[in-house]
């Protein structure tokens, strides 16, 4: 599809060199993995939906003052982004117990947490992205003290905004993962922290408010089926794709642009 130079190929996306220095093109693949990539599948149209959903979220977040890497969507699978130096931490915000937190602390899935909890995981596939504390982050210099505070406050602001956005369309934001990076503007010495990577049903847990139905990657992890259909439902509720029955056909969302 592209003659551009591949900068990085990950499990779900490919980064290409961008048209200008300091930019990259983020290409969303249909590939899906879980459990340290032991489980894999290609889900037809997933990349198209994630490109659109992430565009939507990043744009809305920018609108409330969250700095993001997103510049603009280029086509059905690609978006132009600012190139950042990724902070090697996955920042997870949890509102309701699920997944590893439920398992680790013996809390029943679905229990509302006393307050949103922010967790940090060190980005290292070989180590299975271990949970780390502020001590580890400071000692190993993965983020400076100011950066650490910024990550927490940005993550909580994203949580407040996204919780409301999803609630308005009947979806509970259970938890989600963010990545941030350092953006060196011009020859500024102190980089700005930008929200990077993606926000999509691959990186969030989203439950229907009424039925509790899962509308996220857990459908894949737990073999519930209807993965792409659930992602399309999220896109439809957010008003990203049309209401009609044609939404099962992800190709329909390419029409227009
Ligand atoms: N603005 C950005 N600048 C540079 N790198 C970015 C930016 N946004 C996201 N990335 C990185 O691009 C990659 C996206 O690919 P993908 O999500 O498929 O990776 P992955 O398989 O999850 O692996 P990783 O462990 O590296 O995250 C990730 O490594 C992510 O950290
Ligand atoms: Mg990733």
From TrEMBL:
Q: Name one Pfam family in it.
A: SAICAR_synt
Gene3D superfamilies the UniProt entry points to: ATP-grasp fold, B domain, Phosphorylase Kinase, domain 1
Which terms in the GO cellular component ontology are assigned?
cytosol
Q: Which UniProt keywords apply?
A: ATP-binding, Ligase, Nucleotide-binding, Purine biosynthesis
Annotated ranges, domain SAICAR synthetase/ADE2 N-terminal: 7-237
Pathway entry:
Purine metabolism; IMP biosynthesis via de novo pathway; 5-amino-1-(5-phospho-D-ribosyl)imidazole-4-carboxamide from 5-amino-1-(5-phospho-D-ribosyl)imidazole-4-carboxylate: step 1/2
One of the record's GO molecular function terms: phosphoribosylaminoimidazolesuccinocarboxamide synthase activity
What Enzyme Commission number(s) apply to this enzyme? 6.3.2.6
InterPro entries named among the record's database cross-references: SAICAR_synt/ADE2_N (IPR028923), SAICAR_synt_PurC (IPR033934), SAICAR_synth (IPR001636), SAICAR_synthetase (IPR050089), SAICAR_synthetase_CS (IPR018236)
Enzyme class per UniProt: ligase
Which Gene Ontology BP terms does the record give? 'de novo' IMP biosynthetic process; cobalamin biosynthetic process
Which SUPFAM superfamilies is this protein grouped with? SAICAR synthase-like (SSF56104)
Q: Which family does it belong to?
A: Belongs to the SAICAR synthetase family.
Question: What is the protein's name according to its record?
Answer: Phosphoribosylaminoimidazole-succinocarboxamide synthase
- Species of provenance: Hyphomonas jannaschiana VP2
